Amino acid sequence: MERVGVDGVEIAWAQAGVGDPALMFLHGYTGSSTDFMHHIDHFAQDRRVLTMDFRGHGQSGHGPADGYTFNQLARDLIAVVEQAGATQVDLLGHSMGGRIAMLAALERPDLVRSLILMSTSASPFPDDPWAYVSTVTDQLRIRGMNFLDENPYHEPGDWRLSSEALRMRRANRDALDVEAFIGLARELSCAPGVLEDLAKTQIPITLMVGRRDRMRTGTKEIAKAIPSARVHLIRRAYHSPQLSNPAQFREHIEDHLSRLATH
Q1: What is the mean pLDDT of the chain?
Q2: Exposure string (b/e) for 235-261, b if CB count within 10 Å is 16 or more?
Q3: One-character DSSP codes across 211-226
């Protein structure tokens, strides 16, 4: 992976394929770019694909505790796009990554051509991870992420993942900065919403969510505020459709990109 320094932290990113605009995958809370590893080659056949690990995740560096904010992650994202030399990007943001994609689009509409928002929310997340994390911050700082072996934080639908996906999730957790786990849980539950600002833009938006994902309320809220957004409910999918129904995940992305090409 390549690196770009942003506010003292090395952000890891990678690219495959060629072309512009680029398609960029953004992982969710506690994840990494490996969450999309089985889809990179497929999409890179026809376009450039960018991925990154948010600070504190995957192969990116760890930052100060007060640096784990949505606004900082959006700045990191913009820095990656600029270093990659992409004139525009189509951002696919999963869960927390969707919220970062929205912020980047609002901050730099010249860089972001469109949004694919998957299993996410433009308001404080209904799953409210801070309700749990706030009660165990001291233990997390003392014992590290291994504390969750005995006191697990259950992500939406994680009991339905394959054994490979569960191994991937464990590897992601092992690489995670405990301060990122704490700080971004607070952001997910408490950061101001962006729905009103997002609804004022003309950016093309596709919404995807698993039929069995309890995050569907966030998708419904965005769809109600932005009638032009296309909504896809993905069959046999919980919170991570790219893992539980990869074929339909790819189909909806291709549909989104093909519609952009006709305008």
Answers
A1: 92
A2: eebbbbbbbbbeebbeebbeebbeeee
A3: TT-TTHHHHHHHHHH-
| 185-226 residue pLDDT tens | 999 999 999 999 999 999 999 999 998 888 899 999 999 999
Show the tokens assigned to 127.
């799953």
Residue 107 near residue 81, CB atoms below 8 Å: no
Write 249-252 long-range contacts (CB < 8 A, 24+). 249/39, 249/208, 250/39, 250/42, 250/43, 252/116, 252/206, 252/208
Domain residues for the domain of 127 are 2-261
Is the N-terminal amide bond of 109 cis, ω within 30° of 0? no
What is the domain count for the chain? Answer: 1
Listed residue (123, 134, 221, 241) closest to 184, CA to CA: 134
Residue ranges in the chain assigned as alpha helix (H): 40-44, 70-84, 96-107, 130-133, 137-143, 163-175, 178-190, 195-199, 216-225, 241-244, 246-261
Closest by CA to 61, choosing from 7, 13, 14, 11, is: 11
**What CATH number did the domain enclosing 60 receive?**
3.40.50.1820
Task: Give the residue among 227, 228, 226 at the shortest CA–CA distance from 199.
Answer: 226
- Indicate the length of the chain as a whole number: 263
Distances (CA, A) of 227 to 55, 91, 104, 219, 223: 33, 19, 21, 12, 6
**pLDDT at residue 160 tops 70:** no
**What would the DSSP string read from start to end of 18-42?**
--SSEEEEE--TT--GGGGTTTHHH
